[in-house]
Amino acid sequence: MHFLDYIFLILAAIIIVVTLVQGGKGDGASSAIMGGMTRSYTDVKERGPEKVLSRVTFALSGLFFLFAILVRMFA
Questions:
Q1: In the predicted structure, residue 31 carries a pLDDT above the cut 60
Q2: Distance (Å) of CA 36 to CA 19, 25, 29, 31, 32
Q3: Average pLDDT along the chain
Q4: Cα(1)–Cα(7) distance, rounded to whole angstroms?
Q5: Which long-range contacts (CB under 8 A, 24 or more apart) does 51-55 make?
Q6: Which residue, 68, 54, 69, is CA-closest to 12?
Q7: Tens digits of per-residue pLDDT, 53-74?
Q8: How would you label 7-29 residue by residue, b for 16+ Cβ within 10 Å and e otherwise?
Q9: 13 near 64, Cβ under 8 Å?
Q10: I need a surface site. Which of 10, 43, 61, 67 has the fewest CB within 10 A?
């Protein structure tokens, strides 16, 4: 395995962990299936740690995409 492959795998694991740490933004899948109250995401504001985790997840996903291209190019 190439060193880019190791970085790619570590980055994927970090994205999974950060995504699992984030809280849900909606009422959950059960209310969607059961016909619960539907709200748009416009009235849900991210603040504090939620905002930081959201931005970290976005940045990590960009790095993941970049490394996916690099791994493919140098494989």
A1: no
A2: 25, 15, 10, 4, 6
A3: 81
A4: 11
A5: 53/18, 53/21, 53/22, 54/22
A6: 68
A7: 999 999 999 999 999 998 898 8
A8: ebeebeeebeebeeeeeeeeeee
A9: no
A10: 43
Residues 6+ apart with CB under 8 A from 64: 8, 11, 12, 15
**Where does the pLDDT of residue 15 fall: very low under 50, low under 70, confident under 90, or very high at 90 and above?**
very high
State the residue for tokens 């909606």. Answer: 26
Phi, psi of 62 (to 5 degrees): -65, -45
**Length in residues, the chain:** 75
